[in-house]
Every structure is written in structure tokens, then in C-alpha cells.
Amino acid sequence: MERTSQSGFTVIEALVGILVFGIIATAFYFSINVVIDISEINRRNTVATNLANEQLELLRHLPYADLGTVNGNPAGNLPAEQSKIVDNITYNITTYISYIDDPYDGVFPDDAYSADYKRARVEVCWSGLSCPRPAVLISDFSATTIETGAGTGVMQILVRDASTLPVGNAVVTITRNDPAVNIQGYTNSDGLLIEPMLTPSNNNYHVAATKGGFSTDYTVPASLAIPDPDNPDVSILEGEMTQVTLYIDQTSTLSISTKHAIDNEPATDVPLQITGIRKKLGDDASGNPIYKYDQMHPTNNEGFVTLTSLEWDVYRIVLTGPAATLYSVAGFDHSSPNPDPVTALTIDPDTNTDLNIYLDSYTPYNALFTVRSESREIITDADIHLVKNGGGYDENRVTTNFGQAFFRDLTAGTYTYTITKAGFVTATDTLEIIGQEQPEITLSLP
Q1: CA dist., res. 67 & res. 141, Å (int)
Q2: Fewer Cβ atoms within 10 A, N terminus or C terminus of the chain?
Q3: Range 38-63 average pLDDT
């Protein structure tokens, strides 16, 4: 019998074909969208460049004396910020005009007149679709008259990072209320900005520096809240240069989890007072420190809170509000390379730190020991024997994998502790318990 052959697709082959076609079509669709977006960005960038050129042309036709922005230095009638609509797209135009002290004839104080010429920087970006790189044009303008700068002073701003290295392209703002001044400039590659031709004033110039992804540092005006700032607003003296140094660096993230020590389950809605204890704005009228960062952050209903854009500092983290009488800190661990307690946790620039805080039921008197070596390494499995002088308490604990041991249900008084660990010299001393203590003990090598 002769067999006939039939050609065609099975259901599976048809489905595979549809799937392959769908993948190719989707990839083609997204590729077309990317090409369209790139084309649109290029078109908008062309418009932005043209607008920047138009703004520079406007500046070139102004008298030299009129080259300045409202409340700027030099001052003038030009708006520092303006917008234009082209093809239903809003373009934001920023004009920054500054004095330049050219090293050709010396710089201040060797050159008494430190405003040799003016430099205009025009930046244009658009709203809506991503503006990955604004159009920026720069042009210099010179006067035709002789130099003169009587009755003014100069401010030199240095911007440094946490390691005291210069920070280039930092945004520096200089403001004053009466008469109004609002100046914006950028540091050079040496982290330096020189602002000449400033009217003399006593502690009236407020200076701030920042940069994308960096912290902000600033001077502080004297006030009733802070009568004696550590870094006060700046004075300008006639014929003199005033130097200001500000410190900024990349910000960090701190993620905190609060847990019950007994079962490691989340402890929810726990308010934490978080204070940067190395950086303060000044002191209040009673001599109490006013810290730059001092905020309350509660954990959420899953026991988490994340702090972003956190400045490098040493942070003290304590329970506050109802949690202060509901819980006691029974332990902690964190991912920081600095083996610090939660009462002095070092956060370095551009880092991500995970912190776990373990909570026990509240006791007014307790002790959380942390045991370390002379090189600050955590010591685990160390035996701690704690005895109250005069009797009434005699307990042993072994340190955890974070070098800790928690003693609860103590009473106020003097205790003697003895800490032993093979390979280390035994440590013994007294400890006064007046509340919730967190002693850190160092063991020495033989």
C-alpha cells in the first residue's frame, strides 16, 4: 500500500513559533523605542545648545558693567534662572556669572584688584524626558577700563573631602539677606573657589557647599538657639581675603533591623534616636552641644528602617520614647568594618551598613559587655564572671559571635568582673552599675 505524506505544523511547533516571533517582536519594539528616545534626546540637546548660544549672544551685547545676575556677584539685572518653551518643551536656562582673578598679573593679595575679568557659564536642560547631560557653554568677558576694587574684600572657599583631599566641581552658594546676595559658583580641580568684589560685612555671608551624591557642609548664623556656632557665617573685610573651608563627601546608607533577642523575631515600631556625635553646629546658651544630625527614626511594622544620604560621622543609636522603658539593648551586630558599639558606630563615606539590634524586656539595671583584643578584633567564647560586691549576684556568661554578653536584672551598686579566654591575659576590674551599662573590655596578649 502506498503511503501519502502530509506536511504541516503540530500545535507545539506553532506555539514555539509564536513564542519566538513574540520575543523577536518585543526586542524589535524596545530597540525602536530606544532609537526614538536617543533621537529625541539629541534633538533636544541641539535646541538646548542653540538656546545657550542665544543667551551668550545676549550677554555679549551688554555693557561690561551690566554683566551680572540678580543678587549675584557681580550684580546685575539678568535672571539667574529662566525658562523658555520650544515645541511645547520647557527648557531651563541657568546663567552664572563670576569674577576671575587671572594669575597673569598675580592673585590676591599680591594683586589688590582680584576681579580681572568676568566669566559666564550658561547651562540649559529640559523638563520631562531624561536630561542626561545639559548643554553648557562658557565665555569670558573683559573690561576696557582700568582695574579698581576699592571698598571690597575677597572670599576664598576650600572644599575638602573626609580625607582632606580637594573636591572639584562642588557647588558653592554664598548668600546674604541685607542687602540681598545670592551667588553660586563651582570649585576648580583644586577644590578652590575665589569670590572677589564682596561688600564688607560682619558675619553676614552664609556659605554652603555640596555636590551630587555628596553631603552638604555650611556655615551657621549666630542665633538664640546657637549663640556660639562652631563654623559661623563669614565676615568680609575691606582689602582682605577671608578663607572658608568646608568638608563634604559621598553619602552612605544605614539599614537598621530591631529584633527580639529571645526568638530573633522582628521588634516593630521601635523609635530610635540617631545622633552624629562628632559633628556639631555649636552650643546652646547652656553650653549643650547642638549636633548637625540628631533625628528620631522608628522602625516600621517589619522592624526595619533605612537611612539614606547619611553623612560620614560617628553615630550614637539609642532607644527613645516608649521603647526606652519597654526594651533593653541585649546585643547587636553590624556589617561595618569598624567594630564599634551602637553608641559609637562609625559610618565611613560611600558605604552601606546593615545593623541588627537585639532587644530584651526592659530592666533598669543591666550590663552589655563587649570583649575585644588590643587590635580591636572581636573575641568570641570568652567567659565573663560577674559578681556583686557584698553578695546578691553571681553569674557567668560566654561572649557571642559578636563578642558580647548580656547581664540583666542587676541592681545598682559595685560589681567585679573577671574575663578569661585561652591565649589572653585574664582581665578583672570593678564596674559601677547605675543604669544600663555597655562596657567594652580589652584583653591583652601574654
Answers
A1: 9
A2: N
A3: 82
Whole-prediction pTM: 0.71
Angstrom distance (rounded) from CA 72 to CA 173 = 10
Q: Which CATH number fits domain 366-446: 2.60.40.1120, 3.90.1150.10, 2.30.300.10, 2.40.50.200?
A: 2.60.40.1120
- Residue-wise pLDDT tens digits, 69-117: 988 888 888 898 999 888 888 889 999 888 887 775 556 665 555 677 8
Q: What Cα–Cα distance (Å) separates residue 191 from each residue in 128, 159, 187?
A: 32, 5, 5
What are the distances in angstroms from CA 165 to CA 13, 189, 195, 325, 338?
64, 11, 21, 45, 22
What is the rounded CA–CA span in Å between residue 193 and residue 154? 11
Separation of alpha carbons 223 and 205, rounded Å: 14
**Residue 83 burial (CB count, 10 A):** 11
Which pLDDT does position 350 carry in this prediction?
96
Residue 38, burial from CB neighbour count under 10 angstroms (0-12, 13-18, 19+):
exposed
Looking at domain 153-247, its CATH architecture is Sandwich (2.60)
Positive or negative: CA dihedral 223, 228, 229, 234: positive
How far is 99 from 64, CA to CA, in rounded Å?
A: 12
Query: How confident is the model over 351-361, as a mean pLDDT?
Result: 95
Quickly count: other Cβ atoms within 10 Å of residue 342's Cβ: 23
Which cell numbers in the block locate residue 352? 552601606
338: cell is 569598624
Q: Where in the chain is the domain with CATH 2.60.40.10?
A: 251-362
Superfamily (CATH) of domain 251-362: Immunoglobulins (2.60.40.10)
